[in-house]
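Field reference: sequence -> structure
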Amino acid sequence: MIYLDNGATSYPKPDVVGDAVYDYIKNVGSNINRGGYAKAYSAAGVVLETREMISKMMNGYGSRYTIFTPGNTYSLNFLIKGLARKGDKILISGMEHNAVYRPAYQLEQEGLIEVGYMPCNERGELKLEESLAMIDESVRAVVMVHASNVSGTLMPIREVGQRCHEKNVLFFVDAAQTAGNVPIDMKACHIDGLSLPGHKSMLGPQGIGALLLNPAITGELTPIISGGTGSHSDMAEMPEELPDRFESGTMNLPGIFGLHASVGWLAEHQQEVHEHEQKLVKRMLDSIRDVEGIRIAGMPTEEGRVAVVSVDFLNGDNGMIAFQLEQEYGIMTRVGLHCAPLAHKSLGTFPEGTVRFSIGPFNTEEEIDTAIEAIRKYAQESNEYF
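Structure field:
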C-alpha cells in the first residue's frame, strides 16, 4: 500500500496519537464542565493545554480564543454564517473549496449577502493587483484558502491581510492544507479568523478542528449552534464568555486528546516534516514535468506550493487511471473535482478533474519513485491508444 491521499486526511499518524485516543477512552472517559471530580478536572487540563499549544503554533490570541469544532467545514460555516448580516458583501477567491463556496453561495441565494470572486490564473495564483483593488470599504470580509487542495498553490495571505487591515475589512483564512506544515502567523498576517482541521497536516484524528479568533471580532459573530455549555445554565441566552459561547454540547474529547499528542509531536518535528515533503514533491515534479500526455495543475516547481500534485491524463480517463493505480501499484490517490469546482475552473481542469497525489510526512522516496513510474506508464499507454 502506498498512501498518497494525505490532502484528504493524513495517514499514518504518529504512534502517540492513537495511544492518546486510547488512553482517554480506556482510562479517562469523563466529560469536562459537567463533572465535579478529579478525572473531569484532569481532562479539562488537557483541553486547555491543547488550546494553548495550537494558539502558540499559529501566533494566535490565546486559549480563550481557540474554539474547538467538529472540523474545518464547521469552523468556516461558523465564521461565514455567524458573521453574515443583511446587505453584506464578502469576497472569496477563485480557488476556494466548497467549505467556503457553498455557505457563501447559500447566503447569496437567500438574498442575505453579495459574493465577489477574486480572480486566479491557470496556475492557481491569485491575480494580486486585481484582487487587492477589489478590497475596499464596501467589503465586510474576505475569506480565502491558504493553499489549494487541488494544485497546492500557496496564496498571498500576508499581502491580502495587510490590505484588509488598511481598509478595515475582516480577513478569514482556511488553513486546511497548511496548518501544521506551513508556518502561519495570525497577527503578522492580520487574520481575524483562522480555521483548521485536526486530521490533515496537524496529524490528529478526524472529527476535530479548531477556529482561532481575533478578540476584536468575537462580538460580531453570532453562534449558529446553541445548547449546553456547562456554564451559566440558568440563562436562556448563550453565555458571552469564550470559548463557551461557541462550544455547545459534548466535546470530542478523544479527538482533542489525539490532537494534543499530534501537536506535541509537531512541536518537535514540524520543520523536518516540511523539508521532507518539499523534497519529495520536488522529486516527483522534476521527474514528470516533461512527460507527454499529462498536465500538472498549478505551479511547475515545488516553489509556491505545498506537497500536492494533481495530474490530468490528457488522453485517458482519470477515474480509470486512479483505479488502475491502486489495482496495479497499490497507490491510493483521490480523483475528480476534490470538492473544489471553483479551483478546477480557475486551473482549466473542469469538469474532468484530476488525479491528486498528496504527500505526507511518512512517505518515502521509493514510494514516490513508484508513483512516477506509474504516471509515466499510464501516460504512455494512453498516448499509444489514441
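Note: The mean pLDDT is 95.
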